[in-house]
UniProtKB/TrEMBL annotation:
Na(+) is not transported, but it plays an essential structural role and its presence is essential for fluoride channel function. The keyword Endoplasmic reticulum does not apply. It comes from the Bacteria. This is Fluoride-specific ion channel FluC. It is found in: Cell membrane. Its main location: membrane. Fluoride-specific ion channel. Important for reducing fluoride concentration in the cell, thus reducing its toxicity.
Length: 125
């Protein structure tokens, strides 16, 4: 069932996440896309393990931060368009861009999980 507070939270947080992604993409081009996808992987894993899995925050906040902010902040579609541009323009760095995003994203997600795990351990003391 849809909850109005969740929908409003997603919309508000999505505004900020999407705006930040746009600004970083304009400022850093391809590197902006890499930065948002890597940091977004870290943030989503951190939020998921710390807040959502442990019911630490209200549902509207976790949904707003995860789906709204991180969902609009990260961008699989821009990653794909960047890859297509690099392919059609025969740009160097295609493989590096791909591997940095995919392998780096997994690494950042794992790091987010580890950080959240440490936060949870400290709170349990």
């Amino acid at each position: 069932m849809f909850k109005a507070q969740n929908i409003i939270s997603i919309g508000v947080f999505a505004f900020f996440g999407g705006t930040l992604r746009y600004l970083l993409g304009e400022w850093l081009s391809y590197n902006g896309t890499i930065l948002v996808n890597l940091s977004g992987s870290f943030l989503l894993a951190l939020l998921t393990y710390y807040a959502i899995a442990n019911n630490r925050w209200p549902e509207w906040l976790t949904v707003g931060l995860g789906t709204g902010f991180v969902g609009s902040y990260t961008t699989f579609s821009t990653f794909n368009i960047d890859m297509l541009k690099m392919i059609t323009q025969n740009q160097a760095g295609l493989l590096s861009y791909f591997l940095t995003t995919v392998i780096g994203g997994l690494g950042c997600a794992f790091l987010g999980y580890l950080v959240a795990k440490q936060f949870n351990k400290r709170e349990q003391r």
